[in-house]
Design a protein that fits this description.
alpha/beta; five-stranded parallel β-sheet; 5 helices; 32% helix; binds 1,3,4-trihydroxy-5-OXO-cyclohexanecarboxylic acid
């Protein structure tokens, strides 16, 4: 299996921001854990704070033979119609993930504009959310 893990805005600060919500492990730590978990599979990691770059990465992924894309768009989840349209523009299945349980947090986090065009949604399992999402392509 070949997976693309995309992290959006502010996820580069994981391990340093809101540690009570997102934990103390950095995004590099989390990505290393994911790669170790799926050591027989190919895992590609990408992070950007720029909405358009995430759209471009999704477009490019359409021709790169990925079995699935695991996307934590961060706050873009709640308002980016551009990322929603980028997901709709490609055939590769995308799973929306969140480390925190967004439904137990601020009201504005309860709405996702990308869920409807994703294969599924996993939220609330910390860094394991990424692994559970990728695992769903294997089961
Ligand atoms: C997040 C939840 C979002 O609401 C927030 O803006 C993030 C991270 C999560 O992983 O729990 O940046 O996507």
């Amino acid at each position: 299996m070949k997976f693309l893990f995309i992290n959006g805005v502010n996820l580069n600060m994981t391990g340093r921001r809101e540690k009570g919500v997102y934990g103390t492990r950095t995004l590099d730590d989390i990505n290393a854990d994911i790669a170790a978990h799926f050591k027989g599979d190919e895992c590609v990691f990408y992070q950007s704070n720029i909405e358009g770059e995430i759209c471009s990465r999704l477009h490019a992924a359409a021709d790169e033979g990925f079995d699935g894309i695991i996307l934590n768009a961060g706050a873009f989840t709640h308002y980016s119609y551009a990322i929603r349209d980028a997901i709709s523009s490609i055939d590769t299945p995308v799973i929306e993930v969140h480390m925190s349980n967004v439904h137990a947090r601020d009201e504005f986090r309860h709405k996702s504009v990308i869920s409807a065009v994703c294969k599924g949604v996993i939220a609330g399992f910390g860094a394991n959310s990424y692994i559970l999402a990728a695992q769903s392509f294997i089961l």
